[in-house]
Amino acid sequence: MKKFKLNYFTFLIIIFIIQSCVNKPPENPDNICLIFKEKKSWYKSAIRSEKRWKIPPYVLMSFVYQESSFKADARPEREKLLGFIPWFRPSSAVGYSQALNMTWEDYKNETDNLRASRKDFADSADFIGWYASKGYYQGFEKTDARSLYLAYHEGYRGFEKKTYRKKQWLIKVADRVQTRSTKYQKQYWGCAKELKRKKFIFF
After folding, report:
1. CA neighbours closer than 13 Å in the CB half-sphere of residue 203
2. 105 lies in some domain
3. Distance of CA 68 to the CA centre of its chain
4. In this structure, what is the dihedral angle of CA atoms 158, 160, 163, 166, given to the nearest 10 degrees?
5. Is there a domain that residue 102 lies in?
6. Is residue 91 part of a domain?
7. DSSP E strands: which ranges in the chain?
8. Distance CA 17, CA 172 (A)
9. Choice between 78 and 52, residue whose per-residue pLDDT is larger
10. Between 20 and 30 A from 137 (CA), which of 8, 17, 79, 92?
11. How does the average pLDDT of the chain come out, rounded?
12. 3-class state of residue 85 by DSSP
């Protein structure tokens, strides 16, 4: 019995360590090639999202960087009551994609991915692609990370009403997303062929 408990405890530790490594942010977040070489499952998820929703990997990854800094359990910081008492969070955003509860439910129902988790990179990558694809039918360019991000933040109706014009901070953030997407794009062109090799797809 003691041996069983010890082995079970060891097994739990191993699982915890593996999960920690999987969920740990990449060591080189400024280089998409190094990210995908380190996180091979992320590359596979990004390619799947591209094939399904037509979103380029570099646009997808620029969104994830901005929204969560590649942290699986990311959440908005709590507001402060009286300036120092931790209070409620400003939104229900969670995970890599920082998707809100209601939008996430829409995604799960529309794609029939009912077990999807915002803390799972593959599900978040699929979600971002799903949301971006709605903009393509409205004339959005697939590489226009700036407009896609503004719509991602404000919603497509909000984008049409140009609600972002009253939020200069958001426009600056969208500009940074575009800058990062362009940077990732140049890097990706230099390693795309290497990443397609079997050793990066199967593991």
Report:
1. 15
2. no
3. 7
4. 160
5. no
6. no
7. 80-81, 85-86
8. 38
9. 52
10. 92
11. 85
12. strand
Q: What is the pLDDT of residues 9-34, one digit of tens each?
A: 544 444 444 444 557 999 999 999 99
Amino acid identity, position 141: E
- 101 within some domain: no
C-alpha–C-alpha distance, residues 45 and 202, integer Å = 12
CA distance 178 to 168: 15
Q: Work out how many domains the chain is built from and give that number.
A: 1
Q: What are phi and psi of 91, to 5 degrees?
A: -155, 175
Torsion of CA 119, 125, 127, 133, to 10 degrees: 170
Q: Of 16, 19, 62, which is closest to residue 41 (Cα–Cα)? A: 19
In 3D, which of 62, 122, 117, 112 has the Cα closest to residue 95? 117
Q: Can you tell me whether residue 16 is helix, strand or coil?
A: helix
**Ranges of H-type helices in the chain:** 2-23, 32-38, 40-53, 57-68, 101-111, 121-136, 145-154, 156-160, 168-195, 198-201
Residue count (the chain): 203
pLDDT at 42: 98
Identify the CA nearest to 32 among candidates 182, 143, 175, 142.
182
**Percent with pLDDT over 70 in the chain:** 77
What is the domain range of residue 178? 30-69+122-201
pLDDT tens for each residue of 54-78 = 999 999 999 999 999 999 997 545 4
**Per-residue pLDDT at 82 exceeds 80:** no
Token reading at 40: 């091979």
